[in-house]
Amino acid sequence: MKLIITNSYDELSQKAGQIVKQAILKKADLVLGLATGSTPIGLYKELVKARNKEGLDFSKVIFFNLDEYFGIASENKNSYHYFMQKHLFSKININQKSIFILNGQTKNEAKHCQWYEGKIKEKKGIDLQILGIGANGHIGFNEPRSSFNSRTRLVNLNKQTIKDNSRFFSSMDDVPKKALTMGLATIMEAKTIILLAFGKHKAKIIKKALTGPITEKVPASVLQNHSDLIVILDKKLSPIVIHR
Ligand code: GLP
């Protein structure tokens, strides 16, 4: 595991941005796995900046998103489709055909998830996967007790996740209770993974995930088994991780 400690959210976003930028410069048709949530927004700003100021070319990059809420339309302002368009896709030069996001309105979720796995394989796997972490240790929407062998599938969100996500919705009833997510095995097949975490509220779970036992009770702990994991944290979290 490579651990990068930063002094601020801006620095965290810049470091992550540099790594993604270098990867695209090295491989124009990079297969890039993306995450949602508040944490990677700064990284997406950095990528937009790299496009505008340095002309970074995204035209051949292939994008796969980690997850999507189930039962809401892509036009819904709370969908991850909408989030990605808003923060990244509408601001860079991409080929719309190279964007893969799970469809929250699919009528046949098993078939759809199989199709998604097939697409990842067809593109020869994800080169670089960006991850955030949920307060309960979820990555994507792989909630505690998800199998380390899990693949892309429909999942039930747990109470804490529904509560955490409710801040974006007008009422508790509107918060989706299910989601489609890449599985833990799918995520672990990415050649390189960047895990981003910012803020004191993530300290406890980051310590558990990176220094605690590798257990399905803490889905992100599986990342300890990855051979090319880069963790970028802000300094508020770092002492907790270093001094076990
Ligand atoms: C959601 C997403 C995760 C993300 C998490 C943390 O649950 N499905 O991929 O890591 O939120 O979000 P934040 O970065 O806002 O803390």
Architecture overview:
By secondary structure, this protein is α/β, with parallel strands linked by helices. The protein is 33% helix and 17% strand. It has helices at residues 9-26, 41-54, 80-87, 109-122, 159-165, 184-188, 203-211, 238-242; strands spanning 2-6, 31-34, 62-65, 67-69, 99-100, 128-131, 153-156, 178-181, 192-197, 229-234. The chain has a 7-stranded parallel sheet with strand order 1-10-9-6-2-3-5, with helices on both faces. A 3-stranded antiparallel sheet has the order 4-8-7. Helix 2 links the parallel strand 2 and strand 3 (62-65). Helix 1 (9-26) packs across helix 2. Residues 35-39, 66-67, 132-134, 140-141, 161 line the site of 2-amino-2-deoxy-6-O-phosphono-alpha-D-glucopyranose.
Query: Based on CA inertia axes, which overall geometry fits?
Result: globular
Major sheet details? 7 strands, parallel
Beta-strand residue fraction: 15-25%
> Strand order of the main beta sheet, please?
1-10-9-6-2-3-5
Helix and strand element order: EHEHEEHEHEEHEHEHEH
Report the total helices: 8
Bound molecules: 2-amino-2-deoxy-6-O-phosphono-alpha-D-glucopyranose
- How much helix is in the residues? 25-40%
SS-based class: alpha/beta
On the 0-100 scale, what is the average pLDDT?
Answer: 95
- Gyration radius from CA atoms, angstroms: 17 Å
What is the CA–CA distance across the termini?
Answer: 15 Å
The count of β-strands is 10
Low-confidence stretches: none
